[in-house]
Specification:
Elements (H helix, E strand, L loop, with lengths): L11 E3 L6 E7 L2 E7 L16 H15 L1 H19 L14 H18 L1
Antiparallel strand pairs: 1-2, 2-3
Helix pairs in contact: 2-3
Length: 120
Amino acid sequence: MTNRTFTAGPWEIEDDFHTPCVTAGEVDGTDWIICDLGLPCDLVGLNPENLAQHILDERSANARLIAAAPLLLNAVADAADYLVSVYAQIGSPDSPEGWSDPDAYGTYQVLVAAAAKATA
């Protein structure tokens, strides 16, 4: 369903950098950084202890979502494949005429669009 060129998971959250950083484990003994949720430009130079808690909480929540991305993409692909196997009866799964349930076709289209956005 998708052409996956991203760094393989699992991805993990590292808090060793004073702000959350998502890594993919070690490559040659070094953490492979997927995403550094560093401080916004207007906060650079401020001590992390002085930041508002909601900023730190938001960055941690973003890091958790990003770290879950490989698992979520696999779940999207599995769900789309399942819908095709159950509801796409005739012809191409990309054509609504072959589906026994229009709602399932709509859900399939959303899953395909999400996977395409993630792998574009």
